[in-house]
Amino acid sequence: MEIVEEVCERGVVERRVGLKVGDETVPGIVWLPEASTGPLPTVILGHGGVVHKRAPEVLGLARRLVRHRGYAALALDAPEHGDRITDREAARAMRRSLQARIDQGPGAAPPRVMDAEEARGWANRVATHVKELTALVDDIESTGFSDGRLGYWGMSMGTGIGLRFVASDPRIKAAVLGLAGLGSGMGGADFETAARSLQMPILFLFQWDDELMTRESGLALFDAIGSSDKTLHVNPGGHVQVPVFENDSAELFFARHLGPGV
């Protein structure tokens, strides 16, 4: 990774970086303790749809993992998100569409079904970003940035892509997933197949009144996850109303499975 810019605030170093993957440089952010000098336990953070690598929920969890646990955290912009948006009007339209569905309330809007063109675009973005996340792990391992204790956290689209990623990469030791379901715009049979292949410990978060995912789809996804060590946390509220205390749950989950940091 090439460091583009670095700042430090209250003991947390934040580096804007570029990860070279093929012909593209993928923008990302690294967070790590100010005093760190060697390899660290590392959590990769996958952002949701229509947001980016420094969305509040990503930034908040990254900083607490650094400050409370002495971990490093990393996030990349997914294709057509953040600094990688190529069609800004299409991005604005997608944000408006998602907000309209949320505004209708749980169960009011029918489950979203992708047309053939949308499905192809989604599949291409998923495949591209899984490749990029794999390249990220290759990079942090080869440079000695990580000590091999790797975790993943990603909600909504961060699960739609991230579940496939962690299923394909045995170097990920534990993952926090959620706000996703089977047959709810996350893709076809390959998504369920990936879920059934999971073996690492999983913490799965779901909102009981999610406007974008039905309860049945979320429970079906949790049931499909093949890991014997899996835990489901369900809270009342909508898709963007995950309680802040679930960050405590994620932090403790990673501490349990990745061990102490610096």
Explained architecture:
The chain is α/β, with parallel strands linked by helices and 262 residues long. It is globular. It has a 9-stranded mixed beta sheet with strand order 1-2-3-5-4-6-7-8-9, with helices on both faces. The protein has 7 helices and 9 strands.
Key attributes of the depicted protein:
39% helix, 262 residues, nine-stranded mixed beta sheet
Please give the alpha-carbon distance between the first and last residues: 22 Å
H/E topology pattern:
EEEEHEHHEHEHEHEH
Shape call = globular
Q: List the strand order in the largest sheet.
A: 1-2-3-5-4-6-7-8-9
Radius of gyration: 17 Å
Structural class: alpha/beta
Number of helices: 7
Q: What summary fits the major beta sheet?
A: 9 strands, mixed
On the 0 to 100 scale, the average pLDDT is: 94
Low-confidence stretches: none
How many distinct beta strands?
9
Helix content: 25-40%
**Strand percentage, roughly?**
25-35%
Which secondary structure elements does this structure contain, and how are they paired or packed?
Layout: E1 2-9, E2 12-21, E3 24-33, E4 40-46, H1 56-69, E5 72-76, H2 88-104, H3 116-142, E6 146-155, H4 157-168, E7 172-178, H5 189-197, E8 202-207, H6 215-224, E9 230-235, H7 246-258
Parallel strand pairs: 4-5, 4-6, 6-7, 7-8, 8-9
Antiparallel strand pairs: 1-2, 2-3, 3-5
Provide a quick synopsis of the model.
This protein is 39% helix and 26% strand. The chain has 262 residues and is α/β, with parallel strands linked by helices. Helix 3 crosses helix 4 and helix 4 crosses helix 5.
